[in-house]
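note to self: the first set is below, dont mix up w the second
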Amino acid sequence: MKAYGTLTEAINDLTQRGYTINFNLKSDSVESMTNHLKIKPDEFEIDEVHRFQEMSDVDNESILYAISSTLYDARGLLVNAYGIYADTTSAELVSKLDKHIK
């Protein structure tokens, strides 16, 4: 897996590699309003995970997930604050995301 210096660099490279959908974290799925997709945890795979920390603010960490779904023929990105999930996020979704963080 390629190492990136910045979140922007990673997003640009992964987008060029076909991860073109912007996903948002919802209570029990990842969703793209633009593509009208709602994908449950058992319907997608996490292909890559990249963590970033701002040098000026050590408490400001982001995590980038490269996600694919063969069921929906979709590849996209989810950016989230590291370890922070909405209170309403399902345990199944949190578990899937967390198991890829090293």
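second set (the one i keep forgetting abt)
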Amino acid sequence: MNVLTCDIPGLLILEPKVFGDARGFFVETWNRRRYEEIGLNANFVQDNLSFSAKGILRGLHFQNPNPQAKLLQVLQGEVYDVAVDLRRSSPTFGRWHGLVLSSENKRQFFVPAGFAHGFQVLSPTALFHYKCDNYYSPKDEGALRWDDPQLGIPWPLPSPVLSEKDAKGLPLAQIPESRLFP
């Protein structure tokens, strides 16, 4: 497996080994020992799967208290995936990293606790899978505004389709300090 680091500490891009031939391919998407060898010691307790159409933007979500680390992967289609550092003590607080995840590149993106996360679907549809190291807690969930000018995220598709909750996300400057991470 190839491991790529990002300019924001903690974020990892993982490129699993793909074994393919004329029949198709095989890829191991999770193996606790193999991931521990690269320093990813998350104890995943929940798997989630979402299906979305082109232009849908989900996020930018975070959960605090009871934060979640996530291992993200697209099983079908293509998305632009973004993580925003919400750790107040981090030198990269308020910075974001974006990348394309697709069924073609088979990349995984590890986002540790302390980040907001979201994605926009670029293909006609996308099947998005992610593992979480903590259970979903609706009372602890927050939404960071997807188009916050302070962040300046260049989402690839204009006029995204948003949920009501995501449309009401707050700009980073308006999120109470108690909702951010240490």
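remember for set 2: The chain has one domain: 2-174.
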